[in-house]
Amino acid sequence: MLFQFGYARHQQLVIDARNCSSLTPLHYALLRDNVRVSELLLRRGADPNSTDDKESAALHFICMSECGDDTTLRILFDVCDERKLLVGLDAQDFRGNTALHLALMRGHREKAELLLRRGCNPHLINSEGSTALHIISKISDNDIAELFFEICFDNNQIVQVNALDGFGLAPIHYAFELHNTSIADLLVRNGADLNLRDWTGRTPLHIVCQVDSNVIGESLARAFFEISEDHNQTVQIDAQDNEGLTPLQWAVARFLSDAVALLLDHGADLSSFVFPEEKHFHDAFDRSLDTSDVELTFHVALNVCSIIDSLEGKGYNLNNGDVKTIMINLSRYGFFQTSMESKNKEYKQCRERLDKLFESCRT
């Protein structure tokens, strides 16, 4: 009706008029997910490349929307194709985000697929140094990850799979930090380096060995070695991070008994092994969810016994300093205040063994 009124009065409507924030009517329509008005404005000549004071264009507003379907995005492309108008697919807002970045951040598969098939650049970085693949790894969406590589392959685009973001992390690091071994496998299948270091010198295996759960640590470590074998990647199992620690040392400090066993079975070197310092165990203690839980003390003690078995089974002998470090850290879990009564047989055997070990250290 507004357009009809304007024509009847022979008045020229300024369709891209801006308010104090440089928002146009098209921007407002898109912000409100008003598909009908958005299409009308586009057909009446609204500029889809016009930006507000945050450098967001129509594509950004569409991909910022909570609505996940691609209806409005398709209409924009269809109308612009009819008008023979070039849309700035790779335009970046004030944070460096493209429409693809924003669609991926919200997990909007349909929008991301359409943008990729229209030819947007998947390698552009935002102000945090994140490419599309970094975001995919951080949102941990397996379907979008598969789709991303499929479309890039169809478009003959080589994916920069080992790029580091502004935090010094590559997609493979995020995959293991989020415990997503499916995406990790997909990344390695497409060229990700399992020995790639972040800015702190950590490899993906270091990240695996810094988790807080023995169950998760075992699962991730097993998957890590399966991925390396499936894709014929030789793992630098004794790589040191910037603190001079290997994955084995971190696994010991995190009480990841099953991961320790797996590392040793896969060739971790004990000839130059140095037991982790107390401060690294203390970090693991700080991460624990409930250190007043008697069951937690029970499980930590069992893990310590298993770690000692694994190390000694491969020829490492604990020295007095190692034993004292174990004592100090078990004391943080209330080990010496916990009664043996009402515990199961496995714990009693473990407790007796540790008590003997600690007694030998005191004498």
Summarize the model shown.
The chain has 19 helices and no strands. It is mainly alpha-helical and 363 residues long.
How large is the share of residues in beta strands?
A: under 5%
Highest CATH level, the class of the largest domain = Mainly Alpha
Domain unit count: 2
Order of helices and strands: HHHHHHHHHHHHHHHHHHH
**Strand runs, count:** 0
CATH architecture title of the largest domain: Alpha Horseshoe
Distance between the termini: 95 Å
The number of helices is 19
In CATH, the topology of the largest domain is named Serine Threonine Protein Phosphatase 5, Tetratricopeptide repeat
Helix content: 40-55%
Description:
The chain folds into two domains: 1-157, Serine Threonine Protein Phosphatase 5, Tetratricopeptide repeat, CATH 1.25.40; 194-363, Ankyrin repeat-containing domain (Serine Threonine Protein Phosphatase 5, Tetratricopeptide repeat, Alpha Horseshoe), CATH 1.25.40.20. The protein has 363 residues and is mostly helical. The longest helix is centred in the C-terminal third of the chain and has 20 residues, at 294-313. The protein is built from 19 helices and no strands. It has helices spanning 2-8, 25-31, 35-43, 58-64, 71-82, 99-105, 109-117, 132-139, 142-154, 171-177, 181-189, 204-208, 214-230, 247-253, 257-265, 278-287, 294-313, 320-332, 345-362.
